[in-house]
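Glycerol-3-phosphate acyltransferase
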Amino acid sequence: MEFLFNTNVQFFIAAYLVGGIPFGLLLAKKFAGVDIKASGSGSIGATNVLRVVKESNPALAKKLGIATLALDALKGVTVLIVAYFSGVSEATLWAISVLAVIGHCFSPYLNFEGGKGIATGMGVMMFMLPYETLIALVVWGVLAKTLKISSISSLTGVMALLISSFIIHPEMAHAPVVFIVFILYYKHIPNIIRLLKGEEKRVV
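Structure:
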């Protein structure tokens, strides 16, 4: 058990455990009295919080959606900031980023189920690759405003981040970025299938 006293290992565990906190589920239960795991898409992310809570309380839905988005983005960044000021290596920071996203998508508190990972992924990427993330957010914002289909705007934004990372930082090791993008696309497989069938719902 000596490995648990290793600083890197402690940050890895913290990233996974903090990343796994299901803020959307907790907020919806606390303030709206609904179980978002049993409604809508079953996801614990901001989009499902907004969709499910809106059915009974549209004003509250927007507030809880924004709060979920912010907290899901911040939970990975929080561990990264602490680790950064503790002087860990860049490789360790990337590992923390990956584990925070894995924690959200496969939460230890929800029998290893979880959300789609977009907010948490964008949060850690904003810390690690700020320029690429800003590009992704612009792409996401434009598509979200025009198409109003969350999965299309999210996945296109993620792909814009990946492509721009190769252009802006051709020298870096892209494996962690590719892995995070893979996880996000994997979690969106049901959405992709619905898109292909023309059944994906708009966010209105």
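Residues 155 and 185 are 7 Å apart (CA to CA).
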